[in-house]
Amino acid sequence: MNTKKTLAITALIVAALTLVSDSSEAERGYGRAGCGLGSIIISSNGFVQIFAATSNNTFGFPSQLFGITSGTSNCVADGVVTANREQEVFVEANMAYLRRDMATGGGEYLAAFGDLLGCEETVQPALGTFAKDHYESVFASDHTNRRTPREVLYTFKAQMSIDPQFSGSCARL
């Protein structure tokens, strides 16, 4: 097949794909490239979504991961992931730092985790104390019985949900 014919067929395929749209794209606030910095820079749908995807990838995976875990860059809980999935991603990506912060009863990762759990600012200081007090039951102390990030998340959330201070002040338990 000659080059001109190949380019013409490719152009027709690209044009056809740009005409086919997903009606939920407008509802989500981003196009086929997904949420992230690219969805803010390039808000048009169709062929230009290639540039949005390129922008997301140029600024690296952390750009989209940060957007997903923080709910920014058009990555909202009802868009890409639910609140539970955001929490799972956060715990998995930051397990070592979160473990350290929970052991000491404070730190930026524990504070960010509290935000993801929907905890009000008024209970953030108590969250540190609670995490430190429940560290042994959240993280298995036996090296042969280590918990996965998902087990850590749901064990901690279960313990928080029975504490009246947190069950009423943390919206995403």
Care to describe what's here?
Mean pLDDT is 73; it is low at 14-30. This protein has two domains: 29-81, no CATH class; 83-167, no CATH class. The chain contains twelve helices and no strands. The protein has 173 residues and is an all-alpha fold. Helix 7 (95-104) packs across helix 8 (108-116).
Would you spell out the secondary-structure blueprint of this structure?
Blueprint: H1 3-19, H2 24-28, H3 37-41, H4 49-58, H5 61-70, H6 83-93, H7 95-104, H8 108-116, H9 124-133, H10 135-138, H11 149-161, H12 164-167
Helix pairs in contact: 5-6, 6-11, 7-8, 7-9
- Rg from Cα: 21 Å
Mean pLDDT: 73
- The oligomeric status of these chains comes to single chain
- Beta-strand content bin: under 5%
Distance between the termini: 59 Å
Q: How much helix, percentage-wise, in residues?
A: 55-70%
Give the count of structural domains: 2
Tertiary shape? elongated
Number of helices: 12
* SSE ordering: HHHHHHHHHHHH
Number of strands: 0
Structural class: mainly alpha
Major beta sheet summary = none
Low-confidence stretches: 14-30
